[in-house]
Structure formats: structure tokens, C-alpha cells
Write a structure and sequence with these properties.
Layout lengths: L4 E6 L2 E6 H14 L1 H10 L3 H7 L18 H20 L13 H8 L21 H21 L4 E4 L1
Antiparallel strand pairs: 1-2, 1-3
Length: 163
């Protein structure tokens, strides 16, 4: 069975994360600091998805547009949050498999996730593949942080899409 993935691309460099793993990452970080994680979450959305999700005029953007929502100050805050709070929290996490913390995959998808902050409900998860090993989540958070930093370094948004 094929499940969705979220893709990020900047100058022919790719980051690819199973959608369930990505959703778990976003939920985990939201539990640390919902407002700061919103900067991470928003930076992973395309500009079109961002505008539609928050009821902002679509302007020139369409569903075919994969350009990421790119606000440099917010992306810098996202990098700082990942470095200073998310990674240290994951390193000190008592659960090696994070879904155990939330009562397993079914409980996470059916109950826990949808009781979280409003902005995560945009993702609409169900039947996803999860790699919930905390070392894997840490790896992907570092990959996102590096992508964000590279985009800031060249002052250019990356591409993001779900397939």
C-alpha cells in the first residue's frame, strides 16, 4: 500500500518525509510550544495551501504552485525553535517510539491528533505510514532545519508538495 509523502526541494536537493511521520513531527513539536511550532508548520506549506488554509486571498497562487510560504523572520524563528527546543526535547524523550506516548497509531490518528491545535487539522491524516523512532524524528527535524537555513542563505523559497 502506498501512502503519502511530503517533499521539499531547493536547488535540486530533496527532503522526503512519509506524511504520517511528518504529521507526528508537527504534533510532537506542537506539544512543546504550539505558537513557535506554527512557524515550522507554516514554513512547510506551499504559499497556495497557506493562503487557502487561513482564508487569505489566493492572489496569483494556484494549486499547481509548489512555492513554499516564505517569511524569512518566521523561518529563522523556526530554525531556533528546532535547535533550542525540539531537538533537546527529543534527545531527552523517555519513549524511543513516539507513538507509544500517544497510545499507538490508531489512538493518535483517531483521537489525539484531532484534539490538537486548529492549524494541524489542515493535514487530515488517516492510514499513514509512521516511522516514530525518536532518532528518525530528530534526523528529519535536522533535515528541515538545514533546508530552512539553506533557503535563508540564498533568500529563496523552496518547493513543497504532497504526493
Amino acid at each position: 500500500m502506498r501512502t503519502r509523502k511530503i517533499y521539499f526541494e531547493l536547488n535540486n536537493s530533496f527532503v522526503e518525509i512519509d506524511f504520517g511521520t511528518y504529521s507526528l513531527m508537527m504534533y510532537y513539536a506542537t506539544q512543546i510550544d504550539s505558537q513557535r511550532n506554527k512557524k515550522v508548520f507554516d514554513a512547510t506549506l506551499s504559499e497556495w495551501v497557506y493562503r487557502v488554509s487561513y482564508n487569505i486571498s489566493e492572489g496569483i497562487y494556484t494549486s499547481d504552485n509548489a512555492i513554499a510560504h516564505f517569511v524569512p523572520a518566521d523561518i529563522q524563528e523556526a530554525i531556533n525553535f528546532i535547535d533550542n527546543q525540539v531537538i533537546p526535547t527529543l534527545e531527552n524523550e523517555s519513549f524511543n517510539f513516539i507513538l507509544q506516548k500517544y497510545g499507538g497509531q490508531n489512538n493518535f490518528e483517531d483521537t489525539v491528533y484531532y484534539q490538537s491545535t486548529e492549524y494541524l487539522k489542515i493535514l487530515s491524516i488517516g492510514g499513514e505510514f509512521y516511522d516514530d523512532n525518536k532518532a528518525v524524528l530528530k534526523y528529519y527535524f535536522i533535515e528541515l532545519r538545514n533546508l530552512f537555513q539553506n533557503a535563508l542563505n540564498i533568500n529563496m523559497p523552496f518547493q513543497t508538495w504532497v504526493d
